[in-house]
Amino acid sequence: MGTKPRDIKILVACGTAIATATVVAGKIKQAFDKLKIPVTIVQCKASEVQGKIEVFDPDVIVANTPISEKAAKGKPVINGVPFLTGIGEKEALKKIFEAVGITPPADL
User: Fold this and answer.
1) What pLDDT, on a 0 to 100 scale, did the predictor assign at position 105?
2) Is 14 a catalytic residue?
3) In contact, 18 and 69? CB cutoff 8 Å
4) Is residue 1's pLDDT more than 70?
5) Is residue 107 domain-resident?
6) pLDDT band at 2 (very low <50, low <70, confident <90, very high)
7) Number of separate domains in the chain
8) CA-to-CA distance for 49 and 59, rounded, in angstroms?
9) CA separation for the pair 5, 66 (Å, rounded)
10) Per-residue model confidence as pLDDT tens digits over 67-98
11) 90: left (phi over 0), alpha (psi -120 to 50) or beta
12) Is 45 a domain residue?
């Protein structure tokens, strides 16, 4: 059998790191858990992204508010708003899977 999948690290950023980041993080965690893929998700304010990247070193950033390229430090940034509206949620999940090097499931 193959090797154990690595723990994926996702940084979820929003304006205050309270309500919307919690909703987005929960939906992403649910999708990874369903596929039995280990994931660690950390939430932060958009203004904290640069500092969190240095400490947490995420594979991808999911943001509910614009994040500058400078703040993202070369990390891929996925729009998290679809997780709040439900519109385009599957496409956003596919982008996250692709950004972390996982082939999205066909039934996504």
Assistant:
1) 84
2) yes
3) no
4) no
5) no
6) very low
7) 1
8) 13
9) 30
10) 999 999 999 999 999 999 999 999 999 999 99
11) alpha
12) yes
Name the β-bridge partners of 13.
Answer: 44, 63
* CB distance 102 to 36 below 8 Å: no
Closest CA to 65 of 81, 86, 53, 51: 81
Tokens of 103: 């082939």
What single string gives the DSSP state of each residue in 10-69? EEEEESSSSHHHHHHHHHHHHHHHHTT--EEEEEEEGGGHHHHHHHH--SEEEESS---H
Indicate whether 2 belongs to any domain: no
CATH number at residue 88: 3.40.50.2300
Strand partners, 86: none
pLDDT tens digits for range 21-58: 999 999 999 999 999 999 999 999 999 999 999 999 99
Q: Per the domain annotation, does 69 fall within a domain?
A: yes
What is the domain extent for residue 65?
A: 8-99
Per the residue annotation, which of 8, 11, 12, 14 is the catalytic one? 14
